[in-house]
Design a protein that fits this description.
alpha/beta, Arc Repressor Mutant, subunit A, 2 domains, five-stranded parallel β-sheet
Length: 228
């Protein structure tokens, strides 16, 4: 459950506006105006980091890289004035979980934060399941994907994507369907978001498994989890 949010934004007026709307929704916020402060607060046990990519001293890209190198799984929502697609893709590639391009509405940020909380928790009234595929075990309750009993270290969104595909083993799911099921109907990113996360999961899992490719690409459509 997300309760403590670090808002890292060097523009004081934007930072104060975000904190106001988030605290009105019941979240507890801490503020950072530069990269070193964002890193210190995020390392202190934040539940979520809202991160401006244009921070002074240490920029947002380096903050994300540092946290992911340390294997910290805190969800990261990046804010950027950079509209170029490559910046958004790079942000996702290095470990961000979502992004919003400025200008944005505070209500959109609140909605994204709540969506990230749902995805990280993925609570369900159904009993948690453990899916087993030869050497691979996907444990919903523990939020772990294990090869030969060893957790491969998937981040929350990566695990949610793998669980969705594995729960529909043998069924081809479109990119649009995966965006809706894993990212939610309020997500406004494009289909490349799915491709980025599939590559991450493959890097941690597929290449270390049977070699046959557990996550199969259905060209021009989406992805399928191989049964075997």
């Amino acid at each position: 459950m997300i309760t403590r949010i670090v808002v890292a934004e060097d523009d004081a007026s934007i930072r104060e506006l975000l904190v106001h709307h988030l605290e009105r929704e019941g979240f507890r916020c801490e503020e950072a105006a530069d990269g070193p402060a964002a890193l210190r607060l995020a390392r202190g046990g934040a539940d979520l980091l809202i991160l401006d990519l244009g921070l002074p001293v240490v920029d947002g890209f380096d903050v994300v890289r540092a946290l992911r190198r340390e294997a910290r799984d805190v969800p990261i929502l990046v804010l950027t004035a950079r509209s170029e697609e490559i910046d958004r893709i790079v942000g996702l590639e290095i470990g961000a979980d979502d992004y919003v391009v400025k200008p944005f509405s505070p209500r959109e940020i609140v909605a994204r934060v709540k969506a990230l909380g749902r995805r990280a928790g993925l609570s369900s009234t159904q009993a948690p399941v453990v899916l087993r595929f030869d050497r691979l075990e996907i444990d919903e309750a523990a939020r772990e994907a294990r090869l030969d009993g060893i957790d491969v270290g998937l981040k929350p969104r990566e695990f949610a994507l793998l669980l969705e595909l594995a729960s529909n083993a043998g069924v081809a799911l479109s990119r649009a369907s995966l965006l809706q099921r894993v990212w939610g109907f309020d997500f406004e990113g494009d289909a490349r978001t799915v491709d980025v996360h599939v590559r991450r999961v493959r890097a941690k899992l597929d290449d270390r498994a049977t070699g046959s490719g557990l996550l199969q690409t259905i060209h021009g459509f989406g992805y399928k989890f191989a049964r075997g």
